[in-house]
Specification:
Elements: H1 4-9, E1 11-13, E2 18-23, H2 36-50, E3 55-63, E4 70-81, E5 86-94, E6 97-107, E7 132-133, H3 144-147, E8 149-153, E9 169-176, H4 184-190, E10 206-215, E11 226-231, E12 235-236, E13 239-247, E14 253-263
Antiparallel strand pairs: 1-2, 2-4, 3-6, 3-10, 4-5, 5-6, 7-8, 8-9, 9-11, 10-14, 11-13, 12-13, 13-14
Helix pairs in contact: 2-4
Length: 266
């Protein structure tokens, strides 16, 4: 079975680390431009095809300008092939313009260390089956990226009910609409798939400038749901931060991200 995300990031591998991709409008945001997590997945997918190591460890991506639906190229360069960690950079180019640049580190989870220190547990929320399905609160087709996922939350966000809470934080379960199992590729897309929590202070439209994701474990096979804990701490001069933690149903941390974004309406 081909999953939606895999079809959307599929590439034709050319010579010298180059990949030809076809961007789709199916992952557009409310801004009518491709979602940043989708762009991240395109770049990460290309890098993993070139990488000495099998697993993604980190990705830091800067967005220069919005992409459009249509053909584009990705150029991947090996910066350093290390024993435990290798580093690559990748640039998405469309119509002779650089769209986004990523620096990616890869490794092998089977060769990772064993020491762990976890000062706090996953948020205590009901299981997805016991949460409200909030996907239906946004009409299908209004925001294409939201149709790619299913969302369930302990309670519907206040902004969706026309009563913004003023608290820029949310807890929400997320899964691919076609129930694609979670891996690093999907986790990287998921961290940018939640509506900005700045909606709770009256600002829904937001565009990512820089996004960094740390992958914290190899996801257990069969995992489809992830719990997103989303927080914006500061909004200054129209720019806001957004931190996301992704947890599985067993309370294991899958990924962490931080981004800086600009309010499109502020």
């Amino acid at each position: 079975m081909n999953h939606l995300l895999d079809d959307a990031v599929a590439s034709e591998r050319l010579a010298d680390g180059r990949h030809r991709v076809q961007l789709t409008a199916d992952w557009h945001t409310a801004n009518q431009t491709p979602n940043g997590g989708y762009i991240l997945a395109l770049l990460l997918h290309a890098v993993l095809q070139e990488s000495k190591h099998p697993d993604a460890l980190t990705i830091a991506i800067t967005y220069f300008r919005p992409a459009t639906a249509g053909p584009a190229d990705i150029a991947v360069r090996e910066v350093r092939a290390g024993r435990r960690v290798s580093t690559y950079d990748a640039v998405l180019v469309q119509d002779d313009k650089e769209i986004a640049h990523a620096v990616v580190s890869t490794h092998d989870w089977d060769a990772a260390g064993t020491f762990e220190h976890t000062p706090h547990a996953a948020p205590d929320v009901p299981a997805p089956a016991d949460c409200a399905d909030v996907s239906a609160l946004v009409p299908e087709g209004m925001v294409p990226i939201l149709d790619r996922y299913t969302y369930r939350a302990p309670a519907a966000p206040g902004w969706l009910a026309g009563q913004p809470s003023g608290i820029t934080e949310s807890l929400c379960w997320i899964r691919a609409a076609d129930e694609r199992p979670v891996d690093a590729l999907l986790a990287g897309a998921m961290v940018d798939a939640f509506p900005p929590v700045t909606a709770e202070i009256g600002h829904l439209a937001s565009a990512t400038i820089q996004l960094t994701v740390h992958f914290r474990r190899r996801v257990e096979p069969g995992t489809v749901w992830a719990l997103g804990h989303v927080t914006s701490r500061h909004v200054l001069s129209g720019y806001h931060d957004e931190d996301v933690e992704l947890w599985d149903e067993q309370g294991r941390l899958l990924a962490q991200s931080r981004q800086l974004a600009i309010l499109a309406d502020g």
